[in-house]
Amino acid sequence: MKWLIFLSALFFSVTVISNNYSQEISQDKAQNTDQKPYKIPEFTHHTANEWINSKPLTIEDLKGKVILIDMWTFDCWNCYRSFPWLNALEEKYQKSGLQIIGVHTPEFDHEKIRANIEAKVKKFKLHHPIMIDNDFSYWRALNNRYWPAYYLVNQAGNIVYSHIGETHQGDRKALVIEKKITQLLAKP
Predict the structure, then answer these.
(1) I need a labelling partner for 133 at 20 to 30 A (CA). Which of 14, 53, 103, 110 fits?
(2) What is the pLDDT of residues 6-20, one digit of tens each?
(3) Whole-structure pTM value
């Protein structure tokens, strides 16, 4: 019983510290408007069984669109608590040229199973294309280190902004990202 209490307290402490650290990083990134644009790496998975809600895509397929890359994994609370915001963005801006691409990079072995990912995609009502990145190749190509992480890509295929951490509709971080999306969509 003592071990159970100890482990519960340890888990709670790590969760609180991690969440606070994630929020601090998010706030720093959300204020970083001077990010030097850099080329988005090509998608690293090219077979039908490595994509959900879409045929395999290439960056060339998305040329001329504003892209928001969502790096997530389905057991991440911060990831799935951000889905209502992400779904609202998709609904609001998809017809204007925003394309959300999910990249599911698993933390645990059970998150590598396609049927499990598909069940979570259905549960969270995700309709955008999702690349399954079980080998972390796209994670490494982006030099990503966090779940969730978002990469905003302009029509020329350059990452112009990134954000780390849970985001909710109407919060300061979400408003910053949405403003950047509308600015990009307004450009020819």
Answers:
(1) 14
(2) 555 555 444 444 444
(3) 0.83
